[in-house]
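Example record for the data management plan.
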Amino acid sequence: MAKEKKCPQCAETVKAEADVCRFCGYNFPPSEKPKPRRILKIIGIGVLIIVGIDLIAALTMGHHAGGNAMGNSSDTDIQDGTAQEDPKVKAGRDLRGVTALAAGQALVRNVRNPDSLTIEGAWASDDGKTLCIRYRAQNGFGGMNRETVVYHNDTPHQDGKSWNKYCPNLKLDMTSTVKLGARLQ
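Corresponding structural encoding:
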């Protein structure tokens, strides 16, 4: 038997999960039980994907110390014959991945026709604070519009001024990660 509660306004019995009384329209106060937050779920999925990719890369390629033409290591420090990634570089990479996944999901939720969404390109800054996305989606009249969105410090901007300010010099391609986020929605 389903749990039920009594409406304080009309005294009718409704299901315990009801937010609104079906008899009188009374809005029940939010339940004491906290609802899971979607952003935390997205971040968790993003971290799991990044950790999984790192694990697969480590197993298939093995650990190696990367270096430039001069023999200097850029993103890694060599200690005792093992390569250790600079924590700042790893944090920036993880933040870029999580931001790109969340941005892909946000695009799907916010376009008029999600099936029409095509991600043309996405680029991120080294520190993960800026993500620029160019996409196409169907407008209300059935035509396709090309749009841009800039996520800078987790705030989306859709004006050309932000694109011109933050995006011209970004080279880290995050297109596949944004497309993955759009498919996860």
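Summary line stored alongside the record: Residues 86-185 form one domain.
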